[in-house]
Structures are given as C-alpha cells and as structure tokens.
Amino acid sequence: MQWQRVVELHSGGDGGRHGSGYLIASGLVLTARHVVDGLDATSVRLLEPDEDRLPGGIGAWQDARVVWSGTDVDLALLAPAAAAAFRKLESTTTIGRLDGRAPVRVDALGFPRAMLNPTYSDSLHVEAYVNAWSGVRGDAMLLDVRTSRPAQAEGWRGMSGAAVFAGDRLVGVIEAVPARLDGSTLRATPAHALFEATDAARLLREADVDLAPQLVDAAYVDNLPPAGHWGDVREQYTRAVVATLCRIDYLGLAVSGAPDRKMPALAAFSEQRLRPWQDDTMPKG
Q: What is the pLDDT along the chain (285 residues), one digit of tens a residue?
C-alpha cells in the first residue's frame, strides 16, 4: 500500500456520504459501489505530504465521475471529471487473488467516522487476518481486525471503499460490518471480481492495471520486507526527527550531551536518542 494513493470521498454536503478509496492508476479510483450508488459524480481528495514529506497534509477536493458501478458486486470505479489524472503516478496497482489455504495477513487504510475531528476527517490503519474457513460458501472476505478499532460498529462508517492489501497486492475493498458479528470483523469484496465485469475489465486494461497470475498466500506476504506496505516512510520519519532535534549539529556543534566533537546528525541522533536509557543520561537541573 502507498499512502500517496489513499483517497477520501465525500458527496452531498454535511449530511452526505463519506467513504474511502484507492488510486489504482493516475486516472482511476477504486471504491465501494454503495458509497457512490445512484450518483453520477462525487468529490475526492488524496493524502498529501507535510513539511517533512510524511503523510498528514490535507489536500484539495477534486471532482470525480462514476465511470463504472457493479451490479452484483460492491465495487465502483471513478475517473477525473476535468483533469487527465487525479495524481501523476509512476506505476499502477497490481490486483491479486488470495490463495485461501491459510490465514493471510492484510491491512487497510481509510477514513472511518470514529476518527472524525471537528475540522477534518482522519485516517485509521488496520491490520487483520483473512481466514479461509470463514464464509466458505460466500464470495466475501471476512477480516479479523487485530489492531485499533472503533468502540461501536457505527464508528466504522466511512471506512467503506478502503483498499485491502495482502503485501503489495490489492485483494479487496471494505464493504461493511457484518450485522451479526462484533466490530472486530469487517467484510470485504474481492477485488479480482473487477475482471469478471466486461466494462470494468476494459477500464482496467486501458489504465494498465493487471491481475497478478500468482495467487497471494501467507508465505508470499510473510516473505516481503516488513516496511513493504509504506515504502520509505520510516526512513523519512527518522530523518525528519533528526532534522528537528539535531539542527544544531549542522553547525558542527555537539548534540544533547554527545562527546565534544563534530558528528553527522544521524550518527549523533542514533548514539544519544536510540541507545538504552540510563539514569546518568538524565538532564541535570
């Protein structure tokens, strides 16, 4: 998953619909059908980088039109209403299909109502497992959420349409909270169903979005690097902290009790901030 592609959707003013989506190509957003059902257009905005190039900035709303809406599946595709692209991308997203023979670790990022602030909506990242033995007679995926979740099922509203990733493969779209299960369970529509609809498959081909030939299983996900979902965000965060806490080092001075010698900022930060805590490092007075 790439945070630069996570999409927030809103339509109909203060009392309108609020949902999530994912930019699978420069000019194509994937979301849930019920988020845009009956609409010709909606508004979307992407996560933006802050001053340290980390996710957190609030972008501008863009107009989008519904170019395909599923009939038997809770999936929909949006295209820009005016510009050629929502955001320029270097590559498209690859859609995958779960193997299903063992529990697979997945994650999703969306904008549920539980994270709503007075002035803006905020994101919630969830990690979950999809178990092959749950819902074997249906087409939906059941996500067993293992991380932070809303206190009440109603708080999940707005998470609908969020992309579900297994490693680097988009495998589903959040659909709903099953009515008879608690709030730790989410239901998702398998994303590969897009290729079974003629018009949707055409739009994907035109956008160079492919279905991976290899099934995604637990081994595939576990063999990916731990930071595979977020790319270089961890490195960017470290450098941002270094730039903030160790600016004085750029003048060639010691940092926070470091030995009186010139040290690169990253080395000084690693020595003073990341070493095991000891009482003698406590500031005096």
A: 899 999 999 987 666 789 999 999 999 999 999 999 999 999 999 988 887 777 877 889 999 999 999 999 999 999 999 888 999 998 999 999 998 778 999 999 999 988 888 777 889 999 999 987 888 788 889 999 999 888 888 899 999 999 999 999 999 999 988 888 888 999 999 999 999 999 999 999 999 999 999 999 999 999 987 644 444 555 555 555 555 555 444 444 444 444 444 445 455 544 544 444 444 444 444
Q: Are residues 131 and 248 in the same domain?
A: no
Residues 206 and 270 both lie in one domain: no
Phi/psi for 44 (5° steps) reads: -135, 155
Q: Residue 236, exposed/middle/buried by CB under 10 A (0-12, 13-18, 19+)?
A: middle
150 and 266 assigned to the same domain? no
Helices (H) and strands (E) in the chain, counts: 5, 13
